[in-house]
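Format notes (please read before filing issues)

Several people have asked whether sequences and structure tokens are stored in separate files. They are not. Every record keeps both together, in the order shown below: the sequence lines, then the token lines. Line labels are part of the format and must not be stripped during preprocessing.
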Amino acid sequence: MKFLPTVAPLFLSSLAACNFLFATDQQTLVDSDLSVPGENPLSFCSDPTEYSLTIDNVDLEPNPPEKGKELLIKARGNFTEKVEQDAYINISVKYGLITLINTKADLCEQMKQVDEECPLDGAKAFTKSVTLPKEIPTGTYSVLADVYNNDNKQITCLKASVHF
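Then the structure lines:
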């Protein structure tokens, strides 16, 4: 699927955006106590101290993103445990109550989109530019990215809910 090379890296080293999340007049609906540091619509699913990826920041330019325009994503974080081959990311995208995407992707394959390869360990940073489609229907989109190592230990979990 075309959006996976965009979604997985963004949600990962930040793990930060999905083509379905963007519009000109968007309003972000997230729990501010679990917000991912930086200028972005992301929040952690639960206490981030439990994860083996510490996200320092994820910045989107522009924020909020605008459909039909280029989006620059900058992310920085630290893997406190080595991420090996066969790590995976469960991605769910919903439009209102309708599930658009519910898939499991190879995390190491997705990381190649930001010039990273497994094993992943220590401090990482990336910058990625993505052109967003103009044809994004108005509505509420919810994205969940739940990331696991090959031993099924959770690396991180991020979510975003955006209305536009």
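For reference, the curators noted about this record: The first helix runs from residue 4 to 12. Strands lie at 27-28, 43-44, 53-61, 70-83, 88-95, 98-106, 120-131, 140-148, 154-163.
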